[in-house]
Every structure is written in structure tokens, then in C-alpha cells.
Amino acid sequence: MFVGPDERMRKQPTNPQEFIELAEDELIRSFPNLHFYAEEEIQLLGKPAVKLVYSYDSQKGRTKEQSITYFGVGVTFQFICESPESDFEYWEPVFEYIINSFRIGRGIVETPSKLPSLKEMSPVELYNAGASMYKEAKYEKAKEYFKRCYQAGMYRMQAAYAMALCDVQLGRKPEISKELRGQEDETGAVYVSSNLACYLIEEGHTATLKRVAKGSEVHARIKGIRYIIRTSTDPLTGGFVHFVFRQKGEEEIEIYPFSRVTLIETDRYLISLVKNASSLPLCPLPVDGLKTMEES
Questions:
Q1: Before 257, cis peptide (omega within 30)?
Q2: For the CA atoms of the chain, what is the radius of gyration?
Q3: What angle do CA 197, 198, 199 make, to 5 degrees?
Q4: Which listed CATH number (3.40.50.150, 3.40.50.980, 1.10.240.10, 3.40.1000.10) goes with 2-101?
Q5: Model pTM?
Q6: pLDDT digit string, tens, across residues 29-48
């Protein structure tokens, strides 16, 4: 038995589940604005252990920790990695390597999986890793990858907007990088257009992105028919405004939001996507990158 932070007698945990329940309570009491990323029972050297990953506010800013609590025979070991949240991804594989290097008793140490070095990842790989983490609802991890993509200097507006989406999912006020302040409208339009283009490519169509003044365009080909989707931000509502044109030779025929022609199957398909463009799933970039046209 021991005295907890609430001055109540507590039973010493003897198994991972008891430890998780106790740790949750104590950490919430001890750290302001605590956020859990992982709470799981694992096996380490053939023995039960608990892995906890969490972040909290400290005097030095946002801090992130990973702790491994190992239940041995008659003794409990605990190992902790603590760093500023922004540096955690750098130290996490180092910590996991150290944990897996221990040789206690006769247990066999599992070989840690080889983690890709962020320095070796291309901007496309970084963005797509973020998209994958976002899909799995691992928003903190996703934001870290999008941040690295932004820092790599490519797909900056897409990555900046994706980071803001992660903030929203984490219950935080979304922020945009200092370099893009004053360009929030254009950043949103570029992200929505880019994501729409990636969605169309995933669906088996072709699409390219074109940056234009205060907005962006998607040039797409769907079942052999060419389209242009122009997107900008409405200054009054803050939402997105879309215009869709079907191309016939050099002629652009407007089909959305107004149309004076009979809509065909591909028109209706594209319009249904455009109406929901801002809420489409966050899509990965093509493996060879999203082709971008220069403004003429």
C-alpha cells in the first residue's frame, strides 16, 4: 500500500491493467491539460509491461513523454523519455531502441522495427505519412509529419492547412504558420483544390493543380471529358466558392453553380464531389507528386 496524491491509501499495482487505471488518475491530477496518445499493455522480454504516451503543459511549454513500466519478478522498472513536444519524434526511436536493448534474465529482446529517417523522406512521403496517420485518427503524429513536409519547402499550403485540420481534431485553436499569415484564404483554396485533385486521381481519373490569383484550379479529365474547377474563398462567409466548367475545344461551358446546358453523367458526378470538396477525406498525394501547372 502507498499514499496517492489525493492522500488516500492505494494498493500497489501488480499487473498492467491496475497500473493503467492508477496512472491515468495520477497523471490527470498531476499535469495540466493532459492528453493521452497511447495506453496499452505490451510484452517486453517475455514479461508484461505498460506503454503510456502523453503530453501536458509545463513551464517550458508543451512537453511529451513516453513511459515503459516493466513488471519483473518481485520488482518493477520504469523508463521515461521526456522532451519538448516539437522534438519528441526525434527522440522516440532512440528511446525505443534503448528499451529494446535491455537484456534482463533470459528473455529474448525483440529487434526494433527499422523506422524511416525523416531526413530521408521526400516531401511527398512526409505528406502521405501524415495523411495515413490522420486517417487512423493519430492527429498529433499526423501534424508532425505535415510540419516536416512544410519545412521541406514543398506542398506548403496543403501541409499548413492539414496541420490546422489536425488542431481542430485535437480540440485546439487552429493556427497557420507565420510565413503564410495574410494568405489564409489562398491557403485554404489551394488545399481544397489539391485534395480534390488527389481524390479524383485515387478514383482513376487524371487531375493537375494550377495556382491562380487568390485561388486555385483543378484541370481534370473524367472518362475522356475535360473539366476546370475554380476554387476561391468567400470573403463574407469564409467558405469556399466553386465554379465548374466543361471544356469543349477552347470553349468553357459552365455547369456549376449555373448551367444552361443539359448535364451529362460525368457532370453530375463531378458536381457532387465539388459540392462536398471541403469535407472530402484527407487524401494522399500521388507517389510521383501532384502535377502543378504554372499560371499563364
A1: yes
A2: 25
A3: 90
A4: 3.40.1000.10
A5: 0.62
A6: 788 887 777 777 777 666 77
